[in-house]
Amino acid sequence: MTLKISFSASKRPEAQEAWTRLTRRYGQVDEGDADVIVALGGDGAMLDAMRRRFGDHKAVYGMNRGTVGFLMNEYREDDLPDRIDRAERAVVNPLSMIATNQLGEQVHSLAINEVSVLRQTAQTAKLRIVVDGRERMAQLSCDGLMVATPAGSTAYNLSAHGPILPIGANLLALTPVSAFRPRRWRGALLRHDAQVDIEILHPERRPVAASADNQEVRDVTHVSIREDRSQHLTMLFDPGHALDERILTEQFAF
Question: What is the mean pLDDT of residues 214-243?
């Protein structure tokens, strides 16, 4: 049976050119009729393609036509159906974010990489951290704070000097961004089923935005974060280059 592929591409010229060549060679079907989704671009293109899978949970195979491409496979045009058939599967669960703004409105979003809260102005953010209903830090002065999944631990979390988490570790990384007080706090590792509540202190004077990946809510007063195990997303990787192997390799990089 012929594999039905739906190709999606970022706006980068390299990705658009690849989309044209690959659809001519392998055909193109609507995402709803596809057996697999092939994302062309960088990690942003992969995340965009995966977000559209919350309804159907179809597997996504990425090929790098962007810059970093940590979540992508090497770009090659030959034998694509065979590569997809032999690919290893990595299943990830997103984070659920419920952000409450200063008007009392709640916004619910899902994040594959991380949920972050960041100051909106030059004023340092002041945050109260509660984990599973218990106050763990009465006040953190910082530029921001994030909760990262294993899949997202090598993204913004790593740039903020957070830990790299192996896929399947059943952990979340709670990582500060430029912590000022307490200055030496470097974050914490939490169980995957922990609920994290972040209360913004003095939000009228020190406004804070919350983001689930790139979905931003401004002027928030409270953010609640927990893993959503009712949702699962599947990424496909060439043998020997699966996500858990990439994460392990990254931990030994200099």
Answer: 91
- Is 193:225 a contact under the CB 8 Å cutoff? no
What residues form DSSP beta bridges with 196? 131, 225
Q: Encoding tokens for residue 21?
A: 């060549």
Q: Note the pTM of the prediction, 2 decimals.
A: 0.84
- My answer on whether 88 and 100 are in the same domain is no
Preceding peptide of 94 cis, ω within 30°: no
The H or E element that residue 86 is part of is helix 80-86
Give me the catalytic one of 30, 33, 35, 43. Answer: 43
156 and 76, same domain (yes or no): no
Same domain, 76 and 194: no
Confidence of residue 240 (pLDDT cuts 50, 70, 90): confident
Is the CB of residue 220 less than 8 Å from the CB of residue 100? Answer: yes
- Identity of the amino acid at 111: A
78 is catalytic: no
- CA gap 95, 110 in Å, rounded: 6
- Domain match, 75 and 115 both: no
User: Which residues constitute the domain of residue 142?
Assistant: 95-227
Give dist(CA 119, CA 12) in Å, integer. Answer: 30
- Looking at this protein, which amino acid is placed at residue 217? V
In whole angstroms, give the CA distance from residue 212 to residue 114: 6
